[in-house]
Design brief:
With 541 residues, the protein is an alpha/beta fold. Helices cover 47% and strands 11% of the residues. It has 21 helices and 13 strands. The strands form three sheets. The protein has a six-stranded mixed beta sheet with strand order 1-2-13-12-10-11, with helices on both faces. Strand 5, helix 8 and strand 6 form a beta-alpha-beta unit. Helix 1 packs antiparallel against helix 4, helix 8 runs parallel beside helix 12 and helix 15 packs parallel to helix 19. The structure holds 6-O-phosphono-alpha-D-glucopyranose. 6-O-phosphono-alpha-D-glucopyranose binds next to loops. It catalyses: alpha-D-glucose 6-phosphate = beta-D-fructose 6-phosphate. One of its GO terms (cellular component) is cytosol. It is found in: Cytoplasm.
Length: 541
Amino acid sequence: MIPDIRQSFLKLQSRYAGSAPMNMRDAFEQEPDRFKQFSARLDDLLLDYSKCAVDEQTMALLEGIAKEAKLEDKRDAMFAGAHINATEDRAVLHTALRNRSDEAVHDDGHNVMPDIRAVLEAMGAFCDGVRGGTITGSTGKKITDIVNIGIGGSDLGPAMTCLALAPYCDGPRTHFVSNIDGAHIADTLAGLTPETTLVIIASKTFTTVETMTNAATARKWIADTLGDDAVGEHFAAVSTALDKVAAFGIPQDRVFGFWDFVGGRYSIWSAIGLPLMLEIGPQRFGEFLQGAHDLDRHFQTAPTRENLPMLLGLIGFFHRAVCGFTSRAVIPYDQRLSRLPAYLQQLDMESNGKGVTMDGSALDGPSGPLVWGEPGTNSQHAFFQLLHQGTDIIPVEFIIAARGHETGLKRQHDLLVANCLAQSEALMRGRTLDEARAQMEAKGADTALAAHRVFAGNRPSLTLVHRQLDPYTLGRLIALYEHRVFVEAQLIGINAFDQWGVELGKELATALLPVVEGKEDAAGHDSSTAGLVDFIQAEQG
Ligand SMILES: O=P(O)(O)OC[C@H]1O[C@H](O)[C@H](O)[C@@H](O)[C@@H]1O
C-alpha cells in the first residue's frame, strides 16, 4: 500500500484483529439504523454495505485513508487527461468516450471530443444501415448475424453487454469468437450463412495472434463461398492501429478507430462497442453511455460517504488489505449478467494484479484480490457450501434488479429476490450450535448431527440493487466497477492501466510453436515442457 496511509491502515488492522472483533449479528440487534447508516444510493442504484464488519470508527478511518491517499486529486488527474498510465506514458480517458456534456477533454493539449463524436456518428450511420437493410451482404441480402472476433477487452465487454441487454435487442444476432482453439470459430460459423453474416475484427493492436488467426479463418469462410471480391462487404474492423487494418483490405468506411488513451478492458464505450450498437441501436447505445457519464459525475462530485465507487473501493481495500481476504465473489442474481464475473475478472485482475509500485519497487502489502463468480441461484447449488461453511472467508457481492423484464413471471422474480436476500442474511447471521440443536429437537430429529448444521456467520457481503437492467443502468454498473478498481489501485499504489504480466506467456508460446510443430527440438526448455511436447506429439501420431 502507499506509505501515506500506513498509520491509518495499522489502526484499522488493530481494530479489526483486536480483542473484541465485531459481530454483525449483534451489531444489527443493537443498531436499528444500521442499514440506513451503511448504505448509499444514486437514484435507484443502491449499495448496501451494512452486512460488512464496519462501524462508524472503521468508516471514519477509511474516509481518512481516502484523504491521506489524495484520492480526489488522483481522480481529478485521471479525468483531466494526466498521463497516469506512467509505464506506457499515456492518459487514461475512457471517461471521455462517454462524455455527454459540452466540455472539452484534452490529451496533450488536443481536444479529443470531436474525434470521439465523429467515430460515434460513423458507427451510428453504419449500424442504422445494417439494421435498416441499406447496408447488405455482397448478394444484397440483409445481415442477420454478426460475428465479433476479438479477445480480452475486445471480446468480454461486447459479449457481456450483448447478453445483458438481450431484451433491448432488435437488430441482428451477435456471436463472439475469441479462443485460438479452432473449435470456437468452427462451432460458431457452423450455424451461420456467409451471405447474411457480417464479421467484425476487433483488436486494439491488430496484432493479437488469436484474433488475427480467427480473422483469417473467417475470411476464407466468406471467400470460399462468395469469392474474394465479397470479403469487403462482409467485414468491418475496430482498432487503434489503422495502418495495420488497411493491410487486411477492409474498406475505409467500415473501419472504426479508437485511441491509445483507452485501455482494452476499458474499451466497451469506444468502437469496441459496435456489436452492442448493432444489436440495440444507436439511441440505446447513447443511453448506455449516458448511464456511465452520470456515474462519472457522481464519482467526481459526491462526498466520500455518499460516493458509490469510493465506498466500493474502500470496502474492497478493507477486505483485502486489512482483513486479509484473498478473493471476492461477484454473484449477479440475473441470468443475463452471467458473463459479468468474467468481465470483472479482466477489469479488476488485469488492472490490480500487480506486484510492483509505480516506481518499480515491490509492494509492501497485497495486490488486488482474486475475483470470481457465477449467477445466482445456480451458484447456491454449487459452491455456496464453501461460502457458508468453508474455512476461508470470502466476501460476496450480490447484484439484483428490483424488477425483471418477464412481467408474466413475476413470481419467479420474487423467488430470485428472496433467494438473493436470504443468502446475504444467512452469511451474516449464521446458525449457532444451540440453534441447530433446538431446531432439530423441534423436528424430533437426532441432534448428534447438529455440528454439521452450524454456520459460523459473520461473513461479509454487500448488495447492489437497481430498478431494472436497462442500457442506462448497465452503463452505470460498469462505470461503478471501473472506478472501484481505480480507487483500490490508488491505495495499493500500482498502475492499474498497464498489463506487463501478460507478456511472458505470449513470448514463450511464440518460442514453443516450432517445437510443437516438430520444426525445432526442445533443447533449452525444462524437462517437464519437453516431456509434455513429446507426449502430445506421440499422441498426435
Ligand atoms: O485488442 P487487442 O489488442 O487484440 O488485445 C486483446 C487483449 O490481449 C492482451 O493480451 C491484453 O492482456 C488485453 O488487455 C487485451 O484486451
